[in-house]
Specification:
Layout: H1 2-21, H2 71-86, H3 93-108, H4 114-133, E1 169-171, E2 187-189, H5 190-201, E3 205-208, H6 215-225, H7 235-258, H8 273-286, E4 291-296, H9 301-308, H10 313-320, E5 344-349, E6 355-360, H11 371-384, E7 393-400, H12 401-406, H13 408-414, E8 427-433, H14 442-445, E9 462-466, H15 470-487, E10 491-496, H16 514-521, H17 526-536, H18 542-562, H19 581-584, H20 592-603, H21 613-628, H22 634-647, E11 651-656, E12 671-672, E13 679-680, E14 695-699, H23 705-715, E15 721-726, H24 737-744, H25 747-751, E16 758-762, H26 777-782, H27 799-803, E17 808-810, H28 815-826, E18 834-838, E19 874-875, E20 890-894, H29 898-909, E21 914-919, E22 921-923, H30 927-936, E23 941-949, H31 955-968, E24 977-982, H32 993-1008
Parallel strand pairs: 4-6, 4-7, 7-8, 8-10, 9-10, 11-14, 11-15, 15-16, 16-18, 17-18, 20-21, 20-23, 23-24
Antiparallel strand pairs: 1-2, 3-9, 5-6, 12-13, 17-22, 19-21
Bound molecules: thiamine diphosphate and magnesium ion (MG).
Keywords: Magnesium, Metal-binding, Mitochondrion, Oxidoreductase, Thiamine pyrophosphate, Transit peptide, Tricarboxylic acid cycle
Family: Belongs to the alpha-ketoglutarate dehydrogenase family.
Protein name: 2-oxoglutarate dehydrogenase, mitochondrial
Length: about 1000
């Protein structure tokens, strides 16, 4: 492959030089007229503009003489050859390869002249041009509207050939290359070479692969593309394809006639997607795939659900008739979602007699947002099924042409494809390219030639295929499956089709695409075209066609009748994730001796390992903390949580930018030997023969949207995993806002799918300016769905309150509390997302330490709360207050690191009549514990103190809830809640450090000071 790639510019230049210097070629044309796109038939149409050139007669190769070659160009070639002969390294690698192959062969073939060599060179360039650019001449657009400029290098005239050369024989050589060049036919006529090129590259599939740098991959593709005869399906396969196309077509027709005004985002115009996908799945199953995770948006989703994933038709139809409110097994009711967003999963038999598990992931309206979720879920499946070579679990993404080109998360997802901790061994992408995005034409919707060009950056091969040729679609889809199973990397099928109706069924497309829709109006369906083809070749009779049609219609009608008797409980797809009670009943007690043992394991390093001096010290300190059981810091607490969970058999995975070391250089979970560069991760060595992936900590690519989506998908596969994503700074998480809004906060309500994903968002005001202070706590709180005016049932286990809330938002202030909140994620019988405002300066704060005795989970130990874990939702004042403290004049409620500043100030001014309580779990609101504190301090003024601006932080979330808690105790009104914090602001923080210090000091002093707060 090397010379071909490298040769792309060199050879083009060389040909230009050759031709420009020769007067006889001066009149060549730039491109062939568009009608010549039928060029893939074996007919060569003369280029009218070159017709004035002298037409040589066909001459047998052996009789050719040198006179054909003009002096200057031969001199160029000879110079190049001479230079190569004296020093092969003096010429470009491409020419080096060329001469080594070519001169070697030519020298042993008697009678081969300099002219022949040069013609052969040109011919090689022509072959290469077809490999590179043949797709530009392929017949891709079913509507025939596409106007593409055919690249000049596909023009025979560029190489000095005319019609008269067609039957001349040329020396093509035998190359160490697959496809044409491998055949033992070094001498061929130009016509036969051209015919083969046209058939292979300019038919109904356009292959784009020459951007791939790997020679073996290109050769593999050439072997498949440049076959001796064009591929063809036998009668049996054709029958299956016909049946599948009939299902796809009639399904849409049926919906259209039964629910004329319903929005379904039909597949009409792209019906060949269904046979394409089915054949792709069958081929994938033949090649070892056992499970496929599918992600797709609106277009054709119902058709895929019904015909590919095999969601019962009656169920799909029932959703058209109003639907059923989703109810899970324990009676939880969500909001539900529109029918073309719902997911489901089934086991489907394959053509080869196997079973393949298919799951279609639920997705929001946000196009492409589910891409990385699908990939993450696929990766998790590979982990749990020990699919080491990643051949059993496959991710498939179906895209629209507009969204594939326009949405950045497409690139963010592609970009994960080869990263060791994110790869799934290749995703297959199918673009349903209907050449329009809502009302927008491609020329306004993208800057690139194809909507798939983004995938070229990842060296994925791209098969553009004319959707009206269903067999070509099937062929491209099968090839994609083969590629993925062979090379374990991404591949794209660009299914060029059209959209027969408007964006949805009630939309008028002629407002904006009048010409296109005139053509579409008279354009036969893909099924009609296939009928015609099969009837013409006599393989299938009209009777066969009628039978298929009748069978499909009968089944569709019967399924509609069944809607009426559909049972509510059969709302498949609305299952909570596989919470297996046997897995959940494990004891969650961490015994003190276990803490000691794992503590030692995670703080010791192999003897001959040479860490960085500073890191060595960190580990020595950790060992000391474990030894003494005192002063345990944040990083060690986290490592202990991970380690104890792993020892209990859970999978732990932490990913995000620079998480291995930690943005704030506190974690050091992966150490680097300073001499050898070798890595060592202590958490990988907790149990005998520990699976290296059981604990995974991984620096991610510099993406938020893509990576968070990936981890979300990962977390949804098994409840026995603690999956965490950490933002570099909390505010960067807004790059992943769609994942928070559409999936994490609302996914369970819409789709009844649980996740225990943990999101760590560094947050806190320490003078680092507007972009490194706030994780935008207010946004997460604002999205929480706990009712601010109703105190829920706070029954003893207190689980229901969390279970009924959409997520938990925590701002922990002690290492032990962080440890417990992480463990709580796993040690309960439901899963709920956890948003953690993670600390920055508390990571090394002298007072932010816990003793080991605060870590164990032994029932009955002090501090063991009613929830069954020792995570404290609220930390009461540390000043040994009794149950009733009438002398306290102010109760300051706060959250996060400002507590330590308040406590310092209180000590400084000796304000022993002020109590400070930390609300560690903001959401759901700990009404019971807040009321306990309100009762403890009956005379205290109630203050909410925060370091964030008034329109940010927890203030607006806390106020109505605190008021609700107060009101039920007869303890005042809304205005009795005093606010201390920064004033309202547009930016999250000041950029001036001195201002910050001043503001911070003022608010802390105000909260503790004697002055009344108003
Ligand atoms: C992120 C996002 N932006 C905008 C929209 C609104 N929208 C819905 S469909 C659509 C056009 C999609 O075009 P394309 O990707 O080509 O898919 P098609 O509908 O043509 O199959 C748009 C802009 C959306 N759903 N999601
Ligand atoms: Mg489109």
């Amino acid at each position: 492959m090397v010379w071909f790639r490298a040769g792309s510019n060199v050879t083009k230049l060389a040909v230009r030089r050759l031709l420009n210097q020769g007067p006889s070629y001066a009149t060549r044309t730039r491109s062939l007229p568009s009608q010549t796109r039928s060029f893939h038939s074996s007919l060569y149409r003369p280029n009218p503009q070159s017709s004035s050139a002298p037409i040589p007669r066909a001459v047998p190769l052996s009789k050719l003489t040198d006179s054909f070659l003009d002096g200057t160009s031969s001199v160029y070639l000879e110079e190049l050859q001479r230079a190569w002969e004296s020093d092969p390294a003096s010429v470009d690698e491409s020419w080096d390869n060329f001469f080594r192959n070519f001169v070697g062969q030519a020298a042993t073939s008697p009678g081969i002249s300099g002219q022949t060599i040069q013609e052969s060179m040109r011919l090689l360039l022509l072959v290469r041009a077809y490999q590179v650019n043949g797709h530009m001449k392929a017949n891709l657009d079913p509507l025939g509207l596409e106007q593409r400029e055919i690249p000049e290098d596909l023009d025979l005239a560029l190489y000095g050939f005319t019609e008269a050369d067609l039957d001349r024989e040329f020396f093509l050589g035998v190359w160490q290359m697959s496809g044409f060049m491998s055949e033992n036919r070094p001498v061929q006529t130009l016509r036969s070479i051209l015919t083969r090129l046209q058939q292979a590259y300019c038919g109904n599939i356009g292959f784009e692969y020459m951007h791939i740098a790997d020679r073996d991959k290109c050769n593999w593709l050439r072997e498949k593309i440049e076959t001796p005869t064009p591929w063809r399906y036998n009668r049996e396969r054709r029958e299956v394809i016909l049946d599948r196309l009939a299902w796809s077509t009639q399904f849409e027709n049926f919906l259209a006639t039964k629910w004329t005004t319903a929005k379904r985002f039909g597949l009409e115009g792209g019906e060949s997607l269904i046979p394409g996908m089915k054949e792709m799945f069958d081929r994938a199953a033949d090649l070892g795939v056992e499970s496929i995770v599918i992600g797709m948006s609106h277009r054709g989703r119902l058709n895929v659900l019904g015909n590919v994933v095999r969601k019962p038709l009656r169920q799909i139809f029932s959703e058209f008739s109003g639907g059923i409110r989703p109810v899970d097994e324990v009676g939880y009711t969500g909001t539900g979602d529109v029918k073309y967003h719902l997911g489901t999963s089934y086991d489907r038999p394959t053509r080869g007699g196997k079973k393949i598990h298919l799951s279609l992931v639920a997705n929001p309206s946000h196009l492409e947002a589910a891409d990385s979720v699908v990939v993450g879920k696929t990766r998790a499946k590979q982990y749990y099924s020990k699919d080491m070579d990643r051949t059993k679990n496959l991710g498939i993404l179906i895209h629209g042409d507009g969204s594939f080109a326009g949405q950045g998360v497409v690139y963010e997802t592609l970009h994960l494809s080869a990263l060791p901790n994110y790869t799934t061994g290749g995703t297959i992408h199918i673009v349903v390219n209907n050449q329009v995005a809502f009302t927008t034409d491609p020329r306004a919707g993208r800057s690139s030639q194809y909507c798939t060009d983004v995938a070229k950056a990842l060296s994925a091969p791209i098969f553009h295929v004319n959707g009206d040729d269903v067999e070509a679609v099937v062929h491209a889809c099968e090839l994609a499956a083969e590629w993925r199973q062979t090379f374990h990397s991404d591949v794209v099928v660009d299914l060029v089709c059209y959209r027969r109706f408007g964006h949805n069924e009630i939309d008028e497309p002629s407002f904006t695409q009048p010409k296109m829709y005139k053509v579409i109006k008279n354009h036969p369906s893909t099924l009609q075209i296939y009928h015609k083809k099969l009837l013409e070749c006599g393989e299938i009779s009209q009777q066969d066609i009628d039978m298929i049609q009748e069978k499909v219609n009968t089944i569709l009608n019967e399924s509609l009748l069944l809607v009426k008797i559909i049972c509510l409980r059969s709302v498949i797809g609305f299952r909570p994730i596989g919470l297996d009670s046997s897995l959940l009943s494990r004891s969650h007690v961490v015994k003190p001796e276990i803490l000691k043992t794992v503590g030692k394991a995670i703080s010791s390093l192999p003897e001959n390992f040479k860490p960085h001096r500073a890191v060595k010290k960190v580990y020595e300190q950790r060992a000391q903390m474990i030894e003494t059981g005192e002063g345990i810091d944040w990083a060690l607490a986290e490592a202990l949580a991970f380690a104890t969970l792993v020892v209990e058999g859970n999978h732990v995975r932490l990913s995000g930018q620079d998480v291995e070391r930690g943005t704030f250089s506190h974690r050091h979970s992966v150490l680097h030997d300073q001499e050898t560069g070798e890595e060592y991760c202590p958490l990988d060595h907790l149990v005998m023969n520990q699976d290296p992936e059981m604990f995974t900590v991984s620096n991610s690519s510099l993406s938020e949207f893509g990576v968070l989506g990936f981890e979300l998908g990962y977390s949804m596969e098994s409840p026995n995993s603690l999956v965490l994503w950490e933002a570099q700074f909390g505010d960067f998480a807004n790059g992943a806002q769609v994942i928070f809004d559409q999936f994490i906060s609302s996914g369970e309500a819409k789709w009844l799918r649980q996740t225990g994903l943990v999101v760590l968002l560094p947050h806190g005001y320490d003078g680092q300016g507007p972009e490194h202070s706030s994780a935008r706590l207010e946004r997460y709180l604002q999205m929480s769905d706990d009712n601010p005016y109703v105190i829920p049932d706070m029954e003893p286990t207190l689980r229901k309150q969390i279970q009924e809330c959409n997520w938990q938002i925590v701002n922990a202030t002690t290492p032990a509390n962080y440890f417990h909140v992480l463990r709580r994620q796993i040690h309960r019988d439901f899963r709920k997302p956890l948003i953690v405002m993670a600390p920055k300066n508390l990571l090394r704060h002298k007072d932010c330490k816990s003793n080991l005795s605060e870590f164990d989970d032994v029932q009955g130990h002090p501090g063991f709360d009613k929830q069954g874990t020792r995570f404290k939702r609220l930390i009461k004042d540390q000043n040994d207050h009794s149950d009733l403290e009438e002398g306290i004049r102010r109760l300051v409620l706060c959250s996060g690191k400002v507590y330590y500043e308040l406590d310092d100030e209180r000590k400084k001014v000796g304000a022993s009549d002020v109590a400070i309580c930390r609300v560690e779990q903001l959401c759901p609101f700990p009404y019971d514990l807040i009321q306990r504190e309100l009762k403890r301090y009956p005379n205290a003024e109630i203050v909410w103190c925060q370091e964030e601006a008034m329109n940010m932080g927890a203030f607006s979330y806390i106020t109505p809830r605190l008021w609700t808690a107060m009101r039920s105790l007869g303890r005042g009104d809304m205005e009795d809640i005093k606010y201390v914090g920064r004033g309202p602001s547009a930016a999250t923080a000041t950029g001036f450090y001195t201002f910050h210090v001043k503001e911070q000091a003022e608010l802390v002093q105000k909260a503790i000071g004697k002055e009344p707060i108003n």
